[in-house]
Structure formats: C-alpha cells, structure tokens
Amino acid sequence: MGIREDHSRFRDIVRGRIKQNFKKYVTHGEMIGKRENDYVKIPIPSIEVPKFKYGPKQSGGVGQGQGQSGDAVEGEQQPGQGQAGDTPGEHMLEADVTLEELADILGEELELPRIQPKGHKSVESRATKYTGRSPVGPDSLRHFKSSYKEALKRNLAAGTYNPKDPIIVPIKRDMRYRSFRNSVKPQANAVVIYMMDVSGSMGDEQKEIVRLESFWINTWLRRNYKGLETRFIIHDAAAKEVDEKTFFSTSESGGTLISSAYKLCKKIVDEEYPLNEWNIYPFHFSDGDNWSGEDTRLCVKLLKEYFLPNVNMFGYGQVESKYGSGQFLKDLEKSFPEDDRLVISRIENRDKIVQSIKDFLGGGR
User: Fold this and answer.
1) Distance between alpha carbon 222 and the CA centroid of its chain, in Å?
2) Domain total in the chain
3) Are 340 and 202 in a shared domain?
4) 239-256, pLDDT tens digit by residue?
5) Within its chain, how far is the Cα of 168 from the centroid?
6) Beta strand pairing status for 239-242 and 227-235?
7) Is the residue at 79 inside a domain?
8) Pick from 193, 346, 318, 213: nearest CA to 261
C-alpha cells in the first residue's frame, strides 16, 4: 500500500510540474520526439529522486574513512577544470507520462469540453462478457464460491450438514464455471486528415508550429475516441499523400493550388471512411497564398457542398509567413461568416499555439 501511495504522490508531483510549465511544453515540444507507444518521456526539472540515506550508526564501506574533497583514488591531488560557479546545477528527470494523462492536462488547462461523437458514426466491436454460471467448463473458469454453494445445498438437502463440524467437500456435480457471451458494442472511431501547404514560403519554423499543433490535436482526439487514424497530405500546385515524417520535412517550390489537397482529401474519405461510420476531422495549414481567386472559389464550393455537411469540423490554420499574403483566411471569413463547422485560426508565432489549439478544440465537436 505504501509503495502505491508513494507512486501516486510522485505522479501528482509530475502532473503539477507539467501544468506549471504547460505552455513551454506546448510551444517547444521537448517530449514529442520521445514517444514510445502510448507513453511520452517528459524532462521534469527540480524533482529530487528518492534515495537511501544511512544513519550515524553506519560505518565502513564505500566513501567512508579518512580523506579530503578532491583527493584522487591513489591519493594524488588532481587539478580541476574550468571556473567555479555560484549557482546549483539543475536536476533533470525524465518521467513517463501516458498520452491520456497529457490529454487530461490539456483539457484542464484549456478548459476543453469533452467531444460528443456523432451518434450514427460508429463501428461495432465485439466484447466478451462473463454473465453467469454453468455446470460445465474448463478448470480455468471454475468459480469456487458458486461450487461451494451448490455443495452446501446438496448437504442441506441430504441432511448431512453438521453446523458443529461444517466440512463441505464439493463433488463433480457441484462444480460451477463462469459462462460468457459475446456482446456487440458501438465503438466511436475517428480519422484526422492533415493537409499542409509545403511551397517555398512555408519554412521550417512554420512546419514546426504545425507539428506541435498536430501532436496536441491528436492527443486530445485520441482521448475522446477508442480508434483514431491519422492521414497526411502535402501540396503545392499538386497534392499527394505521405507519411508523417515526410509531412513535416518536405519542402517544395512553385505555385499553390489549395483545391488539389481538398480534392485528394475528399477522395480518401469517399474511398476509405464511410460517412455513417466515421467521425472525420480535416485540418488544413497554410500561409494563405493561393494561385488564383478561381481556385479559392473551388475550395469554397467543396467546403459548402461536401466537407461542412459531412465532417465533425473542418479546421483551417493560417501560419504567419513573411512571404505569404494571408488572403485565403480573409476569403474564408467572408464566405463563412457564421458557420461554426469551419474553425479558422490565425497562428502568428509559437506563442499563439495554445490559443490556436483552443480555437480548434474548444467547440467540443
């Protein structure tokens, strides 16, 4: 019990440190590169690692006996290196934190409402549930309490039960085994489709902002859905699907046709994610440059006629770039002045990431 209490107290300390430095973790992402399955390693400063401390009765052993600070093993003084400092070193500890814990902290800090998946968008999953007792079954499912009750009832019925010597020995016909049935449960699934403009005006800093946002968006959506799939599309004048590593490392040049990404996204949904079975979250990140007003009108048409009626929400994040005009965001605001299914977020720099995450996820859709 003491070990569990200590572990729980330590988890509370770690959680407090993460909340205390929450904005730093969101905007600098020390832990994003240290993901292992469902865990993330987070560097936590200023936590004393528990250690044994010997009392005054201890003597002998390593580190005991005569000697001065700085003495070498062979008794020969060794010169030090560098200048003396006047500040203590910072102790760093890497703590394993589950993505669920991170999502809960994210929700608390940004006051995010829990998502209510669309009722008709679910797939069925089969679950095994033990619901009763059976007179036959494998020994591994034998239920002692039920078997004992059967033996007791048999003894009482036969008049052989002696309260002063209550020895009950179950026989074969007394044995009872746990029985189970397969039940079908709805399981909400979701797919997140990230689209990003990778033309020359989207530099490394802009991609890093997108990388950080996508990590936290994924973390929150995974907390709300049992099954979450992620797809990645990059585009300049043409669009293609890529893996996550390519998504955040590719740099292209040339013109920008945003509609190419929207068309490919629509194709992926039509072919692989039936609208009546999936919660769908497309996110598009760009610096707002598009090749022409005609292509922008095509994007608006796709949003109005296909995406907004069918997806949970469509997120557009415009990342500031000194080379981008930012016109696409203005065109979307003009075309969809009051439609909350389209969430538009302006991301001027890293410091705006937290607000942008709240823009996207704060509607509980």
Assistant:
1) 5
2) 3
3) yes
4) 999 998 899 888 776 778
5) 53
6) antiparallel
7) no
8) 193
